[in-house]
Automatic annotation (TrEMBL), chain A:
ABC transporter domain: residues covered: 25-266
SMART domains hit by this protein: AAA
Organism: Caldibacillus thermoamylovorans
Pfam families in alphabetical order: ABC_tran
Superkingdom field: Bacteria
Entry's Gene Ontology cellular component terms: plasma membrane
Enzyme Commission number, as recorded: 3.6.3.27
Subcellular localization, as worded in the UniProt entry: Cell inner membrane
Protein's name according to its UniProt entry: Phosphate import ATP-binding protein PstB
TrEMBL record, chain B:
UniProt lineage: Bacteria, Bacillati, Bacillota, Bacilli, Bacillales
InterPro entries noted in UniProt: MetI-like, MetI-like_sf, Phosphate_PstA
Compartments where found: Cell membrane
Cited Pfam families: BPD_transp_1
Family of this protein: Belongs to the binding-protein-dependent transport system permease family. CysTW subfamily.
CDD domains documented for this protein: TM_PBP2
Organism for this UniProt entry: Caldibacillus thermoamylovorans
GO CC annotations, alphabetized: plasma membrane
Transmembrane domains' residue ranges: 21-47, 79-100, 120-141, 190-212, 218-238, 259-284
UniProt GO MF annotations: phosphate transmembrane transporter activity
Keyword terms: Cell membrane, Membrane, Transmembrane, Transmembrane helix, Transport
Biological processes per GO annotation: phosphate ion transmembrane transport
Residue span, ABC transmembrane type-1 domain: 75-280
Topology versus the membrane: Multi-pass membrane protein
Protein name: Phosphate transport system permease protein PstA
Length: 271, 292
């Protein structure tokens, strides 16, 4: 069955998006506290593969916290406590035997502000493969080209791979960061408001790129911008005060939300 | 109804502008005074010392006869001293800074250590001399060797190196670390490949400035009993030695005027050494400092 799904993924997406998709993430009664602040409350969300799942909600509703919990980056914050389970491809990521480094090689992340390393464009992309032990120059060259092409930035940078990444514009830097993320060949890509620091034209390019990436990756994107969620995502989860208020297909959320609070938020009554 | 009377504002304008100019010249005066004192000092040293500064001076052992005396042993001893101080301080200092910044939990105990390190940076160098005398010269029986003096000097400059390295490490944006962790890098890989390269200019600048201080320190060497006069060169770190500041101190305490001139020449050599080291620090900073 899995093989069949693999083979027919493309068609299925178009014809019957709901059929036979595997969950990449299943969260079971997830709670998270920053000290005494109960930031995530009883979250039960299933996220499916090869979909773009958008997470929307007002500032401080826990949407960034949630996405950072999915690759356990949230643990970098001191005094974080969690309860409940998150299954990634059937394995509980909080399991003692599940090394966080292993999880993060499968789950890439793109941050709010472009954060390339102060290294050359080439070294930025090659960073991930290198730390995972790939030394062969030929393979690295190939990965770099493939990743940059995948992030639709190859043509802009192919002649200046040895130059410092900070010579690029903000939008290019963000696409470079996406390319860097692709270089470790992840399964899921988490994006934490990836366009909030970009101008409209760069935003458009990144959005087109995200659409393109959906074919090969599962993407979970936090966004402040409701239009963006409506434009690019297949499913949308609405967070409020650390709770999931509504989780459904995007067109349903934006046309006929079942919860009054969702409606109020998307019509701009608050947030 | 207006709360601000424009006429009064105009009337007050003149004294405000006067104060503005006044402070500008006050600060200029402060800078000028410092520079004048420095210029007088330099002028005197150069007038006194330059005639004696020649190849023979650089290349001769100390002697009772001023015309034959040279700085060779002292310069050699200072270089030997650095051979001990540089690796010891760099390894211990940067290591401690990495631990405190990247690994240590931010709790009261860490804060306590932090405050103490900053305090140690302000302890008089004589105290370090006494510590070195008890610990390295006597207890470990290293004698008045390069090793004993080098370790004492290391203790002296370590707090400065730790604090400056910590600042350099702290200045590395946390977004770099996050990017690295998010790709499945371990803490050590992140430190080695992201944090250290990005903080290296700052670490090197701070270290070189601290080492410059170690070169010029005299008090701990006096306390350790480093010889003022030595007619041979050290062959290993366990040998006795003398250093530039000791040699200068020795010459200035002699009654003859020629020796005073030699001391001035020695100071010029020491200054030159310091300028070279500081320029290297500035070059490193300019070359490697990245914009982000």
């Amino acid at each position: 069955m899995a093989i069949l799904v693999e083979m027919r993924k493309e068609e299925l997406m178009i014809e019957q998006p709901e059929v036979n998709k595997e969950e990449v993430y299943q969260t079971k009664d997830l709670n998270l506290w920053y000290g005494d602040n109960h930031a995530l409350k009883h979250i039960n969300l299933d996220i499916f593969e090869n979909e773009i799942t958008a997470i929307i909600g007002p500032s401080g509703c826990g949407k960034s916290t949630f996405i950072k919990t999915l690759n356990r980056m949230v643990e970098l914050v001191p005094a974080v406590k969690t309860s409940g389970e998150i299954y990634y491809r059937g394995r509980n990521i909080f399991d003692k035997n599940y090394e966080v480094e292993e999880l993060r090689t499968r789950v890439g992340m793109v941050f709010q502000k472009p954060n390339p390393f102060p290294k050359s464009i080439y070294d930025n992309i090659a960073y991930g493969p290198r730390i995972h032990g790939i030394k062969d120059k030929k393979i690295l060259d190939e990965i770099v080209e493939k990743s940059l092409r995948g992030a639709a930035i190859w043509d802009e940078v192919k002649d200046r791979l040895k130059e410092n990444a900070y010579g690029l514009s903000g939008g290019q830097q963000q696409r470079l960061c996406i390319a860097r993320c692709l270089a470790i060949e992840p399964d899921v890509i988490l994006m934490d408001e990836p366009t909030s620091a970009l101008d409209p034209i760069s935003t458009l390019k990144v959005e087109e790129l995200i659409q393109e990436l959906r074919k090969n990756f599962s993407i979970i994107i936090v966004t402040h911008n409701m239009q963006q969620a409506a434009r690019i995502s297949y499913k949308t989860a609405f967070f409020l005060n650390g709770e999931v208020i509504e989780y459904d297909q995007t067109n349903k959320i934006f046309s006929t939300p079942s919860d009054k609070r969702t409606e109020d938020y998307i019509t701009g009554r608050f947030g | 109804m207006k709360l601000i009377d424009q006429e009064q504002v105009i009337r007050r304008m003149k004294p405000r502008l006067f104060r503005n100019t006044f402070f500008k010249y006050l600060f200029l005066l402060a800078t000028g005074l410092c520079l004048i004192v420095l210029a007088v000092l330099f002028g005197r040293i150069f007038i006194q010392g330059l005639p004696y500064l020649d190849w023979q001076f650089m290349n001769s052992l100390p002697s009772r006869k001023p015309e034959e005396a040279g700085i060779y042993t002292a310069l050699n001893g200072t270089i030997w001293l650095m051979v001990v101080v540089v690796p010891v301080t760099m390894i211990l200092g940067v290591g401690a800074a990495i631990y405190l910044e990247e690994y240590a939990k931010k709790n009261r105990f860490t804060t306590f250590i932090q405050v103490n390190i900053s305090n140690l940076a302000g302890v008089p160098s004589v105290v370090y001399g006494l510590l070195g005398l008890t610990l390295f010269v006597r207890t470990f029986a290293f004698g008045k060797s390069v090793l004993a003096a080098g370790l004492t000097m290391s203790l002296l400059v370590l707090p400065v190196i730790i604090v400056s390295a910590q600042e350099a490490i702290r200045a590395v944006p946390s977004s770099f670390r996050e990017a690295s962790y998010a790709m499945g890098a371990t803490k050590w890989t992140t430190i080695l490949r992201v944090v250290l390269p990005a903080s290296l200019p700052g670490i090197l600048t701070g270290s070189i400035l601290a080492l410059s201080r170690a070169i010029g320190e005299t008090a701990p060497l006096v306390v350790l009993g480093i010889p003022l006069f030595l007619a041979f060169l050290p062959n290993s770190v366990f040998d006795e030695f003398t250093a530039l500041p000791m040699q200068i101190y020795n010459w200035t305490s002699r009654p003859q005027d020629e020796f005073h001139a030699l001391a001035a020449a020695g100071i010029i050599v020491l200054l030159a050494l310091l300028i070279v080291m500081n320029s290297v620090a500035i070059m490193i900073r300019n070359k490697f400092s990245k914009r982000y």
